[in-house]
Amino acid sequence: MTQIDPDAESQPLSHYVGASLDRYFDSLNGCAPPRDLYQMVLEQVEKPLLERVLDYSEGNQSRAAQMLGINRGTLRKKLRSYALDR
Known about the structure:
Elements: H1 13-27, H2 37-56, H3 61-68, H4 72-81
Helix pairs in contact: 2-3, 3-4
């Protein structure tokens, strides 16, 4: 189980996404700018999101899809794309 910083609860998720992107850009150290950044960020966020929601819903894909606000078929397609289909 992940330890949560007590101050973390006051920060929205966007705060951490922004901080991660700042670190990513800093780590480039003048290298060529990234390509397909939008897709890269979506993939980096989507997989753990799906994993956590599935864990929370105890593997119930119908409940997970409802929590995510997507169709169950769409969820299954996404799970296959990340090799998360159980």
